[in-house]
Write a structure and sequence with these properties.
The protein contains 11 helices and 14 strands. By secondary structure, the protein is α/β, with parallel strands linked by helices. Strands 1, 2, 3, 4, 5, 6, 7, 12, 13 and 14 form a 10-stranded mixed beta sheet that branches. Strands 8-9 form a two-stranded antiparallel ribbon. Strands 10-11 form a two-stranded antiparallel sheet. A hairpin with a 2-residue loop joins strand 10 and strand 11. Helix 8 packs antiparallel against helix 9.
């Protein structure tokens, strides 16, 4: 296996898998990436200083992969920034190690991007590896936000995941593409500043995609391409650290990206809704860890908000579109819990 630092040349599509102690996933799913992608892309594995046998596995069983060695675990966001800075390509394709790709999955993505220069990024349809007739939570068939920053997808609202019956099998403009399988133009990635490394993990791809939309660039989901995703990553959904990162980073993203006329109103509502969620965790779900994590996340956001003032100014100065249709004007909580809209097609 060659380290990319020893031999770096331009390629059209670079598939980049960020790995941290994921030997089991690499062994199981990397063969599909190599089998179904090698004719159209160069495959890289960027290793975030793994302590398992990931590197031995890659060198022994997958010598055709190019390897990028990072000196420590930078997390998802900064790990990708460090890795992509070493790759010369027209398109990056950020791919989780727990993705099983399918025959000709890359072709629709490349062809669409080639003929639509106004599109900065796209994603395939994500289906569950455990039930291949169901969408997968992390990205389903493309992502959106409600007025208060709650993400949802074609095929998934909160914990309700739909069966895939072809109901979203058409290309659609989206606000955010999942970081589990994200194709993005290298120029757009760096023009926009890349992923925000301070996030470490969670909400970082939504933040990046929202910044691209503010700049007038477009994003699409292309269901003609589909992959299967395990999901969960290195932190299970019930992990308080995951809750902390989701709440802290989501608030930070709102602070950076909301227009001036909406920021104060949304932040007031989020103060109320976040603490309501915290008490629900404690009283109804008896989850003390997540209860504490939400309080901790709000305190952390308050402490570091000033560090993002310049980011906010730059993002707002780059604004090309005052209204972004993919950030919907309704409250997802109201639609889901009060009006019973559990599927994307039932939303306003």
């Amino acid at each position: 296996m060659r380290n990319v630092n020893e031999e770096m040349k331009e390629c059209k599509v670079a598939i980049v898998i960020l790995n941290w102690n994921g030997a089991k996933m690499l062994r199981q799913y990397l063969p599909t990436v190599l089998n179904y992608s090698r004719d159209e892309a160069t495959v890289y594995v960027a290793d975030n200083a793994s302590t398992d046998d990931s590197l031995d596995l890659l060198r022994r069983e997958f010598p055709e992969c190019k390897l990028i060695l990072l000196e420590k675990n930078w997390g998802f966001a900064e790990g990708y920034n460090k890795a992509l800075a070493q790759i010369d390509a027209e398109y990056y394709l950020l791919l989780n190690s727990d993705i099983e790709v399918t025959h000709h999955w890359l072709t629709p993505l490349i062809e669409f991007m080639d003929v639509h220069p106004e599109v900065a990024a796209c994603q395939p349809k994500l289906l569950s590896i455990y039930n291949k007739d169901m969408f997968e939570y992390a990205g389903a068939s493309g992502g959106y936000l409600d007025r208060y920053g709650y993400p949802f997808c074609r095929g998934r609202i909160f914990e309700t995941v739909e069966e895939d019956n072809g109901q979203y099998d058409y290309a659609a403009e989206i606000l955010w593409a999942t970081g589990a399988a994200l194709m993005i133009r290298a120029k757009d990635y760096w023009d926009c500043g890349g992923l925000d490394g301070r996030f470490f993990a969670h909400n970082e791809e939504i933040d990046l995609c929202w910044r691209l939309r503010i700049r007038g660039r477009k994003l699409y989901c292309l269901p003609e391409s589909y992959v299967y995703h395990v999901g969960g990553g290195t932190l299970p959904k019930s992990n308080p650290m995951k809750t902390f990162l989701n709440f802290r980073n989501n608030l930070t993203m709102l602070y950076k990206c909301l227009p001036d006329e909406e920021l104060q109103h949304v932040m007031r509502w989020r103060w109320f809704l976040d603490y309501l969620a915290a008490w629900e965790m404690l009283i109804l779900k008896r989850n003390l860890g997540d209860f504490k994590a939400i309080f901790k996340a709000r305190r952390a956001f308050k402490r570091w908000r000033k560090d993002f003032e310049q980011d906010r100014q730059q993002i707002q100065a780059s604004r090309q579109e005052k209204e972004i249709p993919e950030q919907r004007r309704f409250s997802l909580l109201w639609q889901y819990y009060a009006k019973g809209c559990k599927t994307f097609s039932r939303l306003p």
